[in-house]
């Protein structure tokens, strides 16, 4: 349907949108509306959308994968893209048009900066956070409540960023990822397969891998939760897809960290820092620090030191049901160390304070990050094994050409 309206109706159209709290255009964009004869659709508030449709996951008897089912077709689709890459920008425009053409009832949700830079490409509205909702507990809550399906266009960093939008949410929507980044180890689908992939996601029956996350809590010397600079305090523990790490940051001194496993003292580490990783994160920062590689379907925690002052401190693979505690020792020379979750700084802890990390429990629809698997020869581990060989060059001989 054409969006061209007579100029005389422009003021009336804008007024209606304002009364419905739907218009999110910046003031300069509103001025262009009043002066242009061609009126395009607006950027609308995500608050206008109905609440999300919750999926269900049925475990398959022959593997650790699940099958995705919907009680009703997904309506609200959040698309997160890699920034500043023209080919990814074009892919998002094509994907959005494909979704509206083939699934007309779909509502497209974009991050605010993406929505305001691309809305003019479409003859249908797109949705985003209202201006008052900055990213944080309240803004992310709207993503939690409204998103049925999450699609990422980019690399592993884009997937991590998208997952961070749901870091305080127990029910992450199914994630359909297209590998369009630098490495793409986590990307399950090629862009050329987007029509097939979207069809599987909407129809149901797609294979899903529930990637485990970590739960993170920060506690003081008396065992009480720390409040203040920690963004997630008001809404519960944060979740990490890859890893949690504490590190000395700008301090010239090594960190002195006491390590406990389910309340029992393990060791006192003197190192640049410590990493606690998921199986998914075992091929990220932990691997660069000498950690083991763990298949994503193996439920476990990985403890990896960062440059320890010891030749005998080896990475440990621990059961997923244990609680790992990293406590900053009174011997630590600096006043505090920094804590990062999936590469983002979340705050710092002082002497006597501790970070407690444990695996998130996957129970029914709750827990984990449900990632839609690609069709790779029918074997659930083909993508992971292929990624080790093709992307990470596992056991690649010196001097051998591809």
Automatic annotation (TrEMBL):
GO cellular component, one term: mitochondrial matrix
Species assigned in the record: Tuber melanosporum (strain Mel28)
Keyword Transferase belongs to the record: yes
Domain of life: Eukaryota
Family per record: Belongs to the NAD kinase family.
Record protein name field: (Perigord truffle) hypothetical protein
Signal peptide (UniProt feature, chain positions): none
GO molecular function annotation: ATP binding; NAD+ kinase activity; NADH kinase activity
Example of a GO biological process term: NAD+ metabolic process
UniProt KW keywords: ATP-binding, Kinase, NAD, NADP, Nucleotide-binding, Transferase
InterPro entries from the UniProt entry: ATP-NAD_kinase_N, ATP-NAD_kinase_PpnK-typ_C, NAD/diacylglycerol_kinase_sf, NADK
A UniProt-annotated Pfam family: NAD_kinase_C
HAMAP family cross-referenced by the UniProt entry: NAD_kinase (MF_00361)
């Amino acid at each position: 349907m054409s969006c061209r309206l007579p100029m005389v109706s422009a003021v009336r159209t804008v007024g209606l949108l304002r009364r419905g709290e739907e218009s999110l255009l910046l003031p300069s964009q509103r001025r262009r509306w009043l002066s242009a004869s061609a009126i395009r659709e607006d950027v609308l508030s995500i608050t206008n959308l109905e609440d999300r449709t919750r999926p269900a996951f049925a475990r398959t008897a022959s593997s650790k994968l699940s099958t995705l089912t919907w009680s009703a077709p997904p309506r609200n689709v959040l698309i997160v893209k890699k920034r500043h890459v023209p080919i990814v920008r074009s892919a998002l425009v094509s994907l959005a048009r494909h979704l509206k053409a083939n699934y007309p009832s779909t509502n497209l949700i974009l991050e605010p900066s993406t929505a305001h830079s691309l809305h003019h490409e479409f003859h249908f509205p797109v949705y985003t956070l209202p201006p008052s909702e900055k990213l944080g507990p309240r803004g992310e809550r709207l993503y939690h409540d409204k998103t049925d399906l999450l699609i990422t266009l980019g690399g592993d960093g884009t997937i991590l960023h998208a997952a961070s939008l749901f870091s305080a949410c127990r029910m992450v929507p199914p994630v359909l990822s297209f590998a369009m980044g630098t490495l793409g180890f986590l990307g399950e689908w090629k862009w050329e397969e987007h029509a097939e992939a979207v069809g599987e996601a909407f129809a149901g029956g797609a294979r899903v891998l529930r990637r485990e996350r970590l739960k993170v809590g920060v506690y003081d010397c008396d065992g009480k939760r720390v409040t203040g600079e920690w963004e997630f305090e008001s809404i519960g523990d944060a979740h990490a897809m890859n890893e949690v790490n504490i590190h000395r940051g700008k301090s010239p001194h090594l960190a002195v960290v006491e390590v406990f496993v389910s309340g029992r003292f393990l060791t006192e580490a003197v190192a640049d820092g410590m990493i606690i990783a998921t199986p998914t994160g075992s091929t990220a920062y932990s691997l660069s620090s000498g950690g083991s590689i763990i298949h994503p379907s193996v439920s476990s925690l990985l403890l990896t030191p960062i440059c320890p002052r010891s030749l005998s401190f080896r990475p440990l693979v621990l059961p997923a049901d244990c609680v790992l505690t990293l406590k900053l020792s009174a011997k630590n020379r600096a006043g505090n160390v920094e804590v990062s979750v999936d590469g983002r700084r979340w705050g710092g802890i002082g002497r006597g304070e501790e970070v407690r990390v444990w695996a998130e429990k996957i129970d029914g629809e709750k827990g984990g990050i449900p990632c839609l698997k690609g069709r790779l020869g029918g074997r659930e581990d083909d993508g992971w094994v292929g990624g080790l060989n093709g992307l990470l060059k596992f056991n690649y001989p010196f001097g051998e050409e591809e």
